[in-house]
Amino acid sequence: MGQHDDEQEYLAPEDDWDLPQQPRPRAPINGDALAPAALSTPREPSPPRSPASGALGHASATPAEAAQSAAASGIPTVLAHADRPGLFPALAARSALFRVGRPSASDAPHQGPVPSQGGYDLSLFGPWPRMRDKAVWEAAMGLAKELGNAAEPFRVSMSAIAARMGLSDTSGAALDSIWASLERLAACRIEFTLPRGARCGGSLLKAATKSGRARFIQVDMALAGPLFREDYQFKMDGSRRATLGGSLAQWLHDFLSTHEAQDKPLTLDYVRGLCGYDGARKSFPALLRAALAELAQKAPELLQSHALKKRGRASDAWAVELARGTARPSFAKPQTGSGERGTNARKGSGKGNRKAGPAL
After folding, report:
1. 350 domain residue, yes or no
2. Residue 78, Cβ neighbours under 10 Å: how many?
3. 327 and 230 in a common domain
4. Which domain holds residue 263?
5. Strands (E), 39-89
6. Residues 310, 306, 323, 135: is their CA dihedral positive or negative?
7. pTM to 2 decimals?
8. Which residues contact 51 (CB under 8 A, 6 or more apart)?
9. What separation, in Å, do the N-terminal and C-terminal C-alpha atoms of the chain show?
10. Are 208 and 215 in contact (CB under 8 A)?
């Protein structure tokens, strides 16, 4: 495997490469069952502070404010891996949390399970985010990592977020689209199980609010705290992903960035379900071919070549064969409560514990 250190190393993926977790009834969080109606309603935001915006497009709390807030709330105020802004949770890439396709006003709110790998047992309540929203979310989390206190509302500049996303279009329409993404993220609540078995829930953003011409967002640290601390954190090349025009190619970019090369091909049905595709089933093979071709052209270090091997007339059973490039996933392990690094094994991921999920 080569040399690596305690902070970052190369990952041999779990044994669930081709097996999504079968949806199960939602487990209680913190001992209390939460009704779907309550989960789909974003919690009330805290009143925003009114600091002057800094060069990075945000303003951070003073150490005294951070200490006071931490003492009052009892929840984390600083995101893990603050010195490594390119690391993001595996959950975001190994599931349909951020699905393919373009955001649309006709998108209906989702209530219930979302396809995911491994034992995440992911459920979502509210607007179902798209890959475009993921880029905005990563930019917002990158800003939050730089704050002294990520739990407090902080002022954001849409231009600063656009710059982090690598966008050249900073027109009014483009910046309004970023704000619409932030509002969707604040309205979306998720539940999931972390690698060590803890069940967590919260909003992708606690709040996205306006005060005059100023705009503020707030991180839901009840969600982001454990998600960034207790899940595997993979390095995502957002600049490379931004060169990909299609959302399916972008999703495949992130998915492959969290997996080593595998001998066993995936099925087309598996990929279609895991990426959250909601279009016509008969159109997906052509879309997948185009997405893989774009990825191989623009990111050959991730994907050298590909083929869809037919297995009967129904495309769901076709094999998706991938010849990977030289790039290997780099990641940080989950942290323990003491701040030490965790182990490589996801709970229940051994071959003896594998259970095939249903066809998606």
Report:
1. no
2. 18
3. no
4. 237-335
5. 87-89
6. negative
7. 0.78
8. 59, 154, 155
9. 33
10. yes
